[in-house]
Write a structure and sequence with these properties.
Blueprint lengths: L3 H14 L5 H7 L5 H28 L5 H25 L7 H4 L9 H12 L2 H29 L5 H8 L4 H16 L4 H23 L2
Helix pairs in contact: 1-10, 2-7, 2-10, 3-4, 3-6, 3-10, 4-8, 4-9, 6-10, 7-9, 7-10
């Protein structure tokens, strides 16, 4: 029987063999990152939050037992805490929160790829799949952001302290450990590991669209 760590290792192998591009990092590495790109990142991420919170709530309703229930509640709390901080980042870049209804929704289709994939996983995925997808999200998103901030600092690009502080940290090391526990619990309950890997990889690929949307200014 596959273990949760085995699935994590399998996804890491896929990541090395067939990496999902980070278009925003590519812009930064070419010394082309501007505040327009930063605003694109904030706008794309802000609308993703509108899907993530209800998705985690649905996961909680589908798997209302420990350790899954505690994990999904933790995710909801994390997203609620991030909302005001991200709004402050937007304001520091000239996106006032009182005008959020005017700037929130990017026109680029790729901005919604993540939302669609996460919604499908939420509705159709087994417990192991939902938790492995979230784990993969955290393993890809936070390092991607940290690399972008590192390039900003290295190149001396004009960026607000709010932006740098928000995107530089990785607050989810403990959450990732708990995600693996939830994956393992799902596998122990009979979840199909192939489904978990498929859905987690699809969510990772949708994050590639997330980066591309943020970079499309």
């Amino acid at each position: 029987m596959s273990s949760a760590q085995h699935l994590v290792d399998e996804l890491e192998r896929k990541r090395r063999q067939d990496p999902v591009p980070n278009a925003l990092l590519a812009v930064a590495e070419s010394d082309g990152l501007t505040q327009d790109h930063m605003r694109g990142l904030v706008r794309t991420e802000s609308q993703c939050h509108h899907t993530e919170v209800p998705s985690y709530g649905k996961m909680l309703s589908r798997f209302p037992h420990p350790p899954a229930a505690d994990f999904y509640v933790e995710l909801i709390d994390l997203l609620h805490a991030c909302g005001p901080k991200l709004d402050a980042v937007g304001e520091s870049l000239g996106l006032p929160r009182e005008e959020k209804d005017q700037w929130l929704w990017p026109a680029d289709r790729r901005a919604y790829s993540y939302n669609g994939t996460l919604s499908w996983i939420t509705a159709q995925g087994n417990q192991a799949a939902t938790a492995l997808a979230v784990h993969t999200d955290m393993c890809v998103y936070f390092p991607g952001c940290e690399k972008i901030v590192a390039m900003i600092r290295q190149q001396g690009v004009d960026a607000s302290e709010e932006f740098l502080s928000y995107y530089e940290g990785d607050p989810c090391e403990g959450t990732r450990r708990r995600a693996i526990e939830v994956v393992q619990d799902g596998l122990d309950r009979g979840d199909d590991p192939r489904e978990a890997v498929l859905m987690a990889r699809l969510l990772e690929e949708s994050i590639g669209d997330f980066w591309a949307s943020a970079a499309a200014v």
